[in-house]
Amino acid sequence: MTLASALIRSHIRRQLAAALAVPLAALTPASGAMAGETVTIRIDNFTFGPETVTVAPGTAVTWINGDDIPHTVVSQSKLFRSKTLDTDDRYSFTFDAPGEYPYFCSLHPHMTGKVVVKAPAG
């Protein structure tokens, strides 16, 4: 693959990711996910999206790297830590205990997000 074709492919991938970001975000539960469900967080353009999600205990959260460069997902409390995620790699963690779980990318510390785990009322 030539450099020019690689750049064009990268540009097309970013355009496609940007076009899909809003519809995907609309389909991703930002709050109220039930136990046993999976919530997806996209890594695109050096951001986690959505930045904050609220889930029930027992919910799996999956991060997918949509960028052309590597990222990680690391909790501030060191509860979870992904390997380095290349393009389209995924990392999942199941949150069992209520609480707030801030996380960041260890390669780009300005990238931050938070998972809030709340037990259902009742």
Could you describe the 3D structure shown?
The chain has 122 residues and is of the alpha/beta class. The protein has one domain: Cupredoxins -  blue copper proteins (Immunoglobulin-like). Helices cover 20% and strands 34% of the residues. The protein is built from one helix and eight strands. The protein has one helix at residues 3-27, and strands spanning 38-44, 47-49, 52-55, 59-65, 74-75, 90-95, 99-104, 112-117. The strands form two sheets. A four-stranded mixed beta sheet has the order 2-1-4-6, covered by helices on one side. β7 and β8 (112-117) form a beta hairpin. Residues 21-31 have low confidence and may be disordered.
Produce the secondary structure layout:
Blueprint: H1 3-27, E1 38-44, E2 47-49, E3 52-55, E4 59-65, E5 74-75, E6 90-95, E7 99-104, E8 112-117
Parallel strand pairs: 1-4, 3-8
Antiparallel strand pairs: 1-2, 4-6, 5-7, 7-8
